[in-house]
Sequence to fold (994 residues):
Amino acid sequence: MTTPILEIKDLTKYFPISGGAFGKSKRAVKAVDGVDITVMPGETVGLVGESGCGKTTVGRTVMKLYEPTSGQIFFDGEEITNLRGRAMKPIRSKMQMIFQDPYSSLNPRHTVGRIISSSFEIHGINPVGGRRGAVQELLERVGLNPEHINRFPHEFSGGQRQRIGIARALALRPKLIVADEPVSALDVSIQAQVVNLLDDLQQEFGLSYLFVAHDLSVVQHIADRVVAMYLGKVMEEAPTAQLFAHPRHPYTKALLSAVPIPDPRVERSRERIILKGDLPSPANPPSGCVFSTRCWKATELCHQVAPLPLELTPGHRVACHFPE
Amino acid sequence: MLKYVSRRIVVSIIILVLISATVFIIFNYLPFDPARLSCGKHCTPEIISGNRHRLGLDVNWWVQWWRFLEGIFVGRDYGEGAALIHCGAPAFGYSFTQHACVTTLLGQALPVTVSLAIGAFIMWLVLGVTLGVISARFRNTWIDRLSTVFVLIGTSLPTFISGLLLLLFIVLKFNLISPLDLGTWHSPLTDPWGWFSSYFWPWLSLALIYAATYTRFTRSNVIETSSEDFIRTARAKGLSERKVLWKHTLRPALAPILTIAGLDFAGLLGGAIITEQIFQLPGLGRLTLQAVLQDYDLPIIVATTTLAAAFVVIANLVVDLAYALLDPRIRIS
Amino acid sequence: MSNLLDVKALNVTFPTVDGEVRASVDLNFSLNRGETLAIVGESGSGKSVSSLAIMGLHNRARTVISGEVIHHGTQGSTELISASDETVRKLRGKEMAMIFQDPMSSLHPYYSIGSQISEAWAIHNDGSKRDGMKRAIEMLDLVEIPSAAKRAHEFPHQFSGGMRQRAMIAMALVNNPSLLIADEPTTALDVTVQAQVLQLLQNMQKEFNMGVILITHDLGVVAEFADRVNVMYAGKIVETAGVEDLYYRSMHPYTIGLLRSIPRVDQIDNHRLDAIKGAPPSLINLPMACSFAPRCEYSSLVTGGLCTQSQPELEQKSAEHFARCFLPAERIAEVRS
Fold:
């Protein structure tokens, strides 16, 4: 049995809401409310969902940018749930993040070289051939000109900046990369380039990805397994082909039917499921199944009892009382 | 909203109390002795300790502070025996150099300072905001460039220069006010013209520098707000440029200016020391200055410091509440 | 000649310190009532620029606009580029309406939703505030906002993203426009909300028999909604065709490349995406050659190296199908398959 590179057990992250005349009230935004995810070495797990589902919070909590409210996080077999500060540092060199907005995630006052080599500096690593050499090699590997090492972020386009972010994440040869919507802010013709790059790098360096995204088309292409979240909970988890071909949770089904397909005949003849109503507030989630307020199959049971994820077929878990 | 308001009020009261305590702590740890400073030429240790006792400095600072607070609510006695004087509530202290309850002195100085502050405030707001809006509307034209010049001049002229220049080259030169008349009080109720003409030049001296800052600030706020998406929507609806400016742009653009204006006004209420000195206006500023430089009159200093701080705290509160009224995102969360 | 909008030789240029930005070059298209024209492009393609020019929302002091935009309305036809701002203003919000990408920043934070819609109505109609509010509530009902009468008094920050966009649509449609321009209306929304809003737009189009210009970068949305498509690149239309022609018989390497590079939820595949190399060009000082040539895989197929020497014009490749490419139709068809 290989050890998973990342394992999350019953993770929760609540953000207290300050209210009342003084101090904090008991209400909290339940951003992540009991999530289990496993990422095996070399695998890409796609984490999908819409606003307020908690996928970005999961990504950040895994990176310990937020401290979990409860639950456990295991990295390469070691529990990191309660590690702070100095103790986390060695883990951080093996676990890196790529951010969504290439325009705000790079320090505009630092040269590209400095941005990438800061990873070396922070961990006191001196690669063979010197830091500068290593940075130039990284630039080349992500498809940028190594001679641009002294340029500033504003001199690059959005797609190029995202490549810089990838180079920075790659510097310390991490085992896991949490990618938070890495291509959403890029032009369509550039997205494909960056997705291909991520694919190639995974092969070359044996990386594992936790790929957080709302764009199902991209996730379908790059992920081995997909986890679909709604209001802080996991609705369905399955290997990619299975999830997209035979979604068994009503929400996943609705989600997939909502994604427009760039093919007029197919698109106009599809069965569309249009969800009614609005997303409930994560500060006040519905009782029972969190999706019950918008589900066309919801019964009394659904409003009372939250369904637990059940493994219907190997590798395919669904949290629903009446899966399709 | 009610929660927000009540929370702010309670916090403001706590802050006021803490400020007054801080004042006492500061004055308690001053490196020199007020009792000796207010002694005069022929000082003996007996006189000094007598002063110390009269000023109430022979007890700990928290006792002093407590007595101060008591005085505000119920009045207080000062001095002893035959020299016992009672100041009715709110009693801020007793000035031995001026032989009067500090409250009385404050009462005389306050109308002067308030007149100065209100007039200057209105003048700089009207001047600054109007010029700022016009500059923004006619960006990069000669109007804009002219106002930039004004802003540069205004911000380079501190009040002691603008005040002196106005006094020497306009007021006295053209004999608009006789030097003997400077600083005499004309009540706005009985002699409005006298009041207006005596305050006009001090207002102008103060307003110039504030107006310059406000012009610049208003201009940049209006320009920035004009590029917001909701302004584009307003135009897309077919609204005229004039209405876009008045109904849609100005309110959000001027809201931050409201905050600053409130605080600036409160600062002036504490006493515009320089302007009052130049124009010989017997306001809180002059009162404080005299107490510090000439007499070292501690009771007056303590009272005016606390009062000035109180004005700022209250202004903060008022501004926050006004902002909540203005911006629905704050009052409905 | 259409029955709603004719755009002829529209040029929009921004003079800047670094040079002229030719955001829109020689645009020609038409729109009829009941039709949807999609304008597809990436950032910097100029897709929004022409619509802002139609609506008269450019700052004329800083923009050079030439060409003709003729609007055929209930009260006759108007040429919009040379018309006075007064004239255009009367049509704006009444016969021509526009909705924008981010509904949160596009609605005024200080005024209630109802009063903003009411204002849109009051600009072009005589009536009391009460009448305006009534109309606003009617519109909110029409776009399926629950408890419209109550929610009309709420503020934009109290609405969710999808509801805000519905409110914007309500505001745009309050005066029964014949032309609706939707600039990336669903880009900022979740995909399930996007589906709701697009369905609403289609229903409204039928109800009001409007001509719709849909500006987007999402080829899936175009496939769902559009009748005709203009593909824009570097300020020019590089291809214009009916929607089926565009997807199944595309005639421009950019369109072909784009369609090949986007993954689809209904096709599970793991092979590399066919990406277009390079990046979109800056619009300042464009060379006098095909703007797409640096990224084009097929420029070598053009004899005489024309692609880097002269600018292609929009040529007819088949019925109702034009593309700006030197390659003849048969060659492109070969390349495509």
Summary: The interface with chain B takes residues 55, 57, 89-94, 97-98, 100, 102, 105-110, 112, 119-120, 123-124, 155, 157-158, 168, 171 of chain C (CB under 8 Å). The CA atoms of residues 162 and 190 of chain C lie 8 Å apart. Chain C has two domains: 3-226, 233-336.
